[in-house]
């Protein structure tokens, strides 16, 4: 893989206990042809005072990439129980076992007996598994070679690989050099870790006439990160309001994640407001820093005694009116007039509230004075215990009104007129983009609620499972295609897919009947015998030439590896001779011959054999081709017919070699 593709990200997690750091491997292995099962990694971690983790063995890796993409490690603390600040170094070494390499050939040097590719791959080649490489393609040089040495030429940016076997040609076409090697890559990340925690500012107020307490977090959470003022990309609050002690029965804590919290039907005495906020910052290096900041504030609720007792005072006046109504009509009339005035003033207070009039406080003050003027003694004796504040104006029955600024790029503003509250919600695009970039890019596919992954393997796909209503990982096979059936008839080794017009599906079947394989036999078959010896043979399956005009075409590379003696080659179909060739090398590097034999059916028992022969004593000079036609008869195409390539030599010990046999047909 390209060294530039290796990438790690760092997250400092001060919200965890103990504080730790997470290093994630973000390298796109699979996209670059490397299976995750081949990858392991180890770390060396260093803070300003020294190394605090150093794994020197791949036997016990920090990351086994198939099962995990990250590594967590606790952060050492200083004498004040704080994480050390300063420069941190994260070194990540990755080992890939049998990493596949494939590069196009850009040259062949016959004098040096070497293959040439672009780039510097000396280390990877010298570390090749088994010390071998493969040339893959269609030229005369394809095959397996033993690596002898490798050198890099920085002038033309090329690597030359000398092999032990003789390279038979300088023609390489579109061939590629392929090998596997166990490789190691190193990526290092530096982080300057220093910060000043942001401060929390709470704005706590209460309103006696509504019997409400409002706690609002007005903090910006801007932190000083190594001299740079940064706003958080994620804010997560735990906002708690604790009622005064001594209330019977006790009132439960009000806990929310909002920035502005309103509690109705409050009590006198001291409330405790706690804010614990988890904030995440995106550093300029791409690392993230997450921490928890907290604050607590006490708030005393002190409402006017007359206001606290307005409800009871009105109740007392009403009870007095009822008492005198049957005994003292004059006193009853006086209390009735008093109650009428109170009700009128109460209506003014309510209308003032509903309409958002500015004289609301004055109307309430007038109401209190009107009630207290009749020697209202409703509150009884003074007490240090909390007393519930009875609202003069409707504000909810223990309702919680939440107006949150969220902190994740969302701001909420309010405009209150009387009992009507308008909310305006705004989204900060830049903060939202930062949030999704930093949060979602570290999400795994399996983190989604509708995805269920188990035993993931390379090249699997996601399919929807209606039984579980989830997406699951699945190994896709050719039988999963809707027009392929490999179940009704199980395939055997060497079978090919054939179209069945009856079932309208592709089904497995033996090759050669209604189809013929493309055979590449790159092994060397040689003889040193004086008599003709079969080097290669190929059975043309029965019914391959089932119709007039059907053909089978065979390509053969013949080579001579000695200047001594004459080599003879012969091609036969069954016992009928098709082609005869003689090679008598006159100069190094010996001779190569090329035969192309095409057998075409003419009738049910006859065929023509067309063969083309080219020979070269020097690799760069190809002789003019020789073409010949031979008629073949007495053939039975309903049975197999065998093509033979034979060779002989008149000098013992100097081999005649058949290098390559390639077969193709119009039935492919």
Question: What's the pLDDT, averaged over the residues?
Answer: 81
Number of strands: 41
Give the class from helix and strand content and strand pairing. Answer: mainly beta
Q: What share of residues is helical?
A: 10-25%
Question: What is the class of the largest domain in the CATH system?
Answer: Mainly Beta
Query: Rounded to an integer, what's the Rg over CA atoms?
Result: 45 Å
Which stretches are low in confidence, meaning pLDDT under 50 for 5 or more residues running? 395-407, 513-518, 617-624
Strand content: 35-45%
Main sheet: strands, sense, barrel: 10 strands, antiparallel
What is the straight-line distance between the termini?
37 Å
> The CATH topology of the largest domain, please?
Jelly Rolls
| Global shape | elongated
- The appropriate CATH architecture of the largest domain is Sandwich
Total of domains: 6
Q: How many helical elements?
A: 6
Description:
It is a single chain. This protein is mainly beta. The chain folds into six domains: 3-98; 106-174, no CATH class; 202-304 and 396-424; 310-372, no CATH class; 480-509, no CATH class; 519-665, Jelly Rolls, CATH 2.60.120. Helix content is 12%, strand content 44%. The protein contains six helices and 41 strands.
Short descriptors:
668 residues; mainly beta; 10-stranded antiparallel sheet; 6 helices; 41 strands
């Amino acid at each position: 893989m390209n060294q530039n593709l290796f990438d790690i990200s760092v997250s400092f997690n001060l919200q965890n206990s103990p504080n730790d750091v997470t290093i994630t491997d973000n390298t796109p292995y699979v996209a670059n042809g490397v299976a995750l099962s081949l990858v392991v990694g180890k770390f060396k971690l260093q803070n300003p005072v020294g190394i605090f983790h150093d794994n020197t063995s791949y036997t016990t890796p920090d990351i086994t990439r198939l099962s995990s993409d990250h590594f967590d490690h606790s952060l050492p603390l200083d004498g004040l129980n704080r994480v050390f600040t300063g420069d941190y170094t994260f070194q990540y070494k990755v080992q890939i076992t049998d990493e596949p390499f494939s590069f196009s050939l850009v040259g062949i040097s016959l004098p040096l007996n070497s293959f040439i590719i672009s780039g510097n791959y000396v280390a990877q080649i010298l570390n090749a598994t088994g010390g071998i490489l493969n040339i893959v393609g269609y030229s005369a040089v394809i095959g397996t070679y033993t690596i002898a040495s490798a050198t890099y030429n920085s002038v033309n940016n090329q690597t030359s690989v000398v092999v032990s076997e003789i390279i038979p040609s300088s023609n390489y076409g579109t061939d590629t050099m392929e090998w596997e090697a166990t490789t190691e890559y190193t990526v290092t990340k530096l982080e300057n870790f220093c910060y000043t925690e942001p401060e929390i500012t709470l704005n706590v107020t209460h309103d006696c006439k509504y019997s409400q307490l409002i706690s609002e977090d007005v903090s910006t959470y801007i932190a000083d990160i190594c001299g740079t003022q940064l706003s958080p990309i994620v804010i997560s609050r735990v906002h708690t309001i604790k009622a005064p002690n001594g209330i019977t029965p006790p009132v439960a804590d009000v806990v929310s994640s909002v920035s502005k919290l309103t509690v109705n039907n409050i009590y006198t005495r001291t409330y405790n407001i706690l804010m614990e906020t988890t904030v995440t910052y995106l550093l300029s290096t791409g690392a993230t820093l997450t921490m928890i900041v907290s604050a607590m504030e006490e708030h005393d609720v002190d409402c006017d005694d007359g206001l606290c007792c307005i409800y009871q005072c009105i109740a007392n006046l009403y009870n007095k009116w009822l008492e005198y109504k049957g005994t003292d009509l004059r006193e009853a009339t006086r209390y009735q007039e008093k109650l009428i005035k109170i009700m009128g003033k109460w209506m003014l207070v309510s209308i003032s509230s509903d309409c958002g009039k500015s004289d609301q406080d004055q109307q309430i003050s007038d109401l209190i004075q009107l009630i207290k003027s009749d020697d209202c003694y409703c509150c009884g004796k003074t007490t240090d215990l909390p007393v519930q504040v009875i609202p003069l104006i409707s504000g909810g029955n223990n309702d919680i009104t939440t107006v949150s600024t969220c902190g994740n790029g969302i701001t909420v503003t309010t405009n209150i007129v009387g009992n009507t509250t308008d909310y305006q919600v705004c989204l900060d695009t830049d903060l939202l983009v930062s949030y999704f970039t930093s949060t979602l890019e570290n999400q795994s596919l399996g983190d989604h609620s509708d995805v269920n992954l188990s035993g993931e393997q390379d090249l699997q796909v996601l399919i929807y499972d209606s039984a579980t209503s989830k997406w699951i990982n699945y190994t896709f096979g050719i039988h999963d295609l809707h027009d392929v059936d490999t179940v009704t008839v199980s395939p055997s080794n060497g079978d090919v897919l054939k179209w069945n017009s009856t079932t309208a599906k592709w089904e497995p079947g033996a090759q050669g009947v209604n189809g013929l394989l493309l055979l590449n036999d790159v092994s060397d078959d040689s003889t040193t015998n004086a008599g003709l010896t079969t080097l290669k043979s190929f059975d043309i399956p029965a019914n391959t030439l089932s119709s007039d005009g059907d053909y089978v075409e065979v390509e053969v590379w013949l080579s001579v590896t000695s200047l001594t003696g004459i080599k003879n080659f012969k091609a036969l179909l069954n016992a009928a001779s098709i082609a005869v060739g003689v090679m008598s090398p006159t100069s190094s590097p010996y001779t190569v011959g090329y035969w192309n034999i095409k057998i075409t059916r003419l009738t049910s028992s006859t065929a023509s054999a067309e063969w083309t022969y080219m020979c070269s004593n020097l690799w760069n000079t190809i002789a003019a081709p020789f073409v010949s036609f031979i008629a073949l008869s007495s053939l039975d195409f309903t049975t197999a017919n065998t093509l033979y390539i034979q060779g002989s030599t008149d000098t013992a010990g100097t081999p005649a070699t058949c290098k390559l046999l390639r077969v193709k047909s119009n039935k492919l």
